[in-house]
Amino acid sequence: MTDAGGTGATTAPGAIEVKTDLETLLELLALEEIGEDKFLGVHPRQVGSRTFGGQMVAQALIAAGRTVTGTTRDVHAINAHFIRGGDVKKPIEYHVDRHRDGRAFANRQVTAYQDGNEIFVMLAAFQDFGTGLEHSVELPDVAYPDALPPLGDHFVGYEDRLQMFVDALKPIDMRYANDPAWILQGTGEKLNHNRVWMKADGDLPDDAIFHAATMGYASDTTVLDSIITTHGLSWGFDRIVAATVNHSIWFHRPFRFDDWALYATESPVAAGSRGLATGRFFSMDGLLLATVVQEGLIRHFPRKA
Fold first, then answer.
1. Distance CA 102, CA 127 (A)
2. Could you list the active site residues?
3. Closest CA to 250 of 105, 68, 104, 75
4. CA pair distance 58, 212, nearest whole angstrom
5. Which of 180, 110, 105, 113 has the alpha carbon at shortest distance from 150?
6. N or C terminus of the chain with fewer C-beta within 10 Å?
7. Residue 239 CB: number of other CB atoms within 10 A?
8. Dihedral of CA 175/176/182/183: which sign?
9. For the residues of 171-211, what is the DSSP string, one character each?
């Protein structure tokens, strides 16, 4: 088949179409409806030992949004709890309960199941966007993404230590405004915050729920980094066990996540084998788009001297 651009390029019969990582993510968000307010989600080819938390957040957001129809309401808050690690070899069923459909608000609960067991539950709230008082904190003073190297540049020389990250699905274009954990670890520097520019690595559909879901997917990356960089530790170098316990996002205003947003994170506390991390997404012109809070299980096993 000749391409539409008129270059004369052809696709050989039976050739395997190579998808971009963003196209793979959008396929993950194309949930199959398997019953009334019930949806089926699948995993990508690139997986870890358990389902990536950001994937469940994103798919649950899509499931909830599919039941809020005929209105202009956008999601304004989610609160999610991870109950069991998802099996990456099996699909996930998302069951949506419609708790409320008011004049301005709608509330949903999404429960994810595998083999009849609850693995994840999320409350989602939707609201007609209104006007009122406005204020927010300021955008941190960092370099803009065009002046920063792509994520892959930071992996050069560390491939053997960070194989899981190197092989992971990368539908999000990420530009660190500070050195990532593994580079800081080599210098002995500690950092109590992280600043990373993010956006979908390509165009997203116009439907606002896809932008919220893609941001939700991205919000589960780098957010726990500030917990370990506060102690001068790094993934791939130090023996760290980490798992998300709960994850909340408040969406403050409309946005497009195929435009750059700065994810500014820090960790106010770690105690009781858990760490708390907070994050803020800012637009390039300084608007606060969303606020994230995540609690994670964090266990460090120092190597014996």
1. 9
2. 220, 244, 294
3. 75
4. 8
5. 180
6. C
7. 10
8. positive
9. -EEEEESS--HHHHHHHT---SEEEEEEEESS---S-HHHH
pTM for the complete prediction? 0.92
CA of 76: how far to CAs of 13, 62, 176, in Å?
A: 46, 14, 27
Length of the chain: 305
64: amino acid identity, one letter:
A
pLDDT tens per residue across span 223-252: 999 999 999 999 999 999 999 999 999 999
- Rounded distance, CA 161 to CA 15, Å? 34
pLDDT digit string, tens, across residues 26-43:
999 999 999 999 999 999
Binning the chain into helix, strand and coil, the percentages to the nearest 5 are 20, 35, 45
For residues 60 and 80, what is the distance between their CA atoms, to the nearest angstrom?
9
Residue 287's identity, in one-letter code, is L
